[in-house]
Specification:
- This protein has a single domain, classed as Immunoglobulin-like (Sandwich).
- It is about 15% helix and about 55% strand.
- Strand 6 and strand 7 form a beta hairpin.
- It is elongated.
- The two termini are about 30 Å apart.
């Protein structure tokens, strides 16, 4: 009886896993500045060829949104890069480079504090794996 239950559980988990793989993703990525620093964010979803360059934040409580829609959005790691403006050279110096895979239908929210590290603040209907943001 116990072995039969284990097999049934394994089959159910496999079906659930396969059903997630077959569904397209529809994710709103919300970015928020919680710093007074001027900074830039570059955002990439390689499997969908989604690229958002030069997202500029220049004040606290500023918000931006990126929509990610398509099939197989979790086949490659997403990349979020943050850059700080060098006051002397007026060039953008890379500060952080984080990666993870995301999948689902919902939203994820990243906030940027003074260290300019993208911090996962909230998510609904989105799963993450393989990188800096598990769970």
């Amino acid at each position: 009886m116990r072995m039969r239950s284990m097999r049934l559980l394994c089959v159910l988990l496999l079906v659930v896993d396969l059903s997630f793989e077959a569904l397209p993703c529809d994710i709103d990525v919300k970015l928020s500045s919680l710093t007074d620093q001027k900074f830039r964010v570059d955002f990439f979803v390689p499997s969908l060829k989604v690229k958002a360059y030069n997202i500029i934040f220049d004040k606290i409580d500023q918000n931006k949104k990126i929509s990610v829609k398509g099939d197989d959005c979790d086949s490659a790691q997403w990349l979020i890069q943050s850059f700080k403006l060098n006051e002397e050279t007026h060039e953008w110096d890379q500060v952080r480079n984080v990666t993870a895979k995301f999948f689902g239908n919902g939203y994820i929210k990243f906030v940027f504090y003074d260290d300019l590290n993208p911090t996962l603040k909230d998510k609904i209907g989105v799963w993450s794996s393989e990188g800096n943001f598990w769970g």
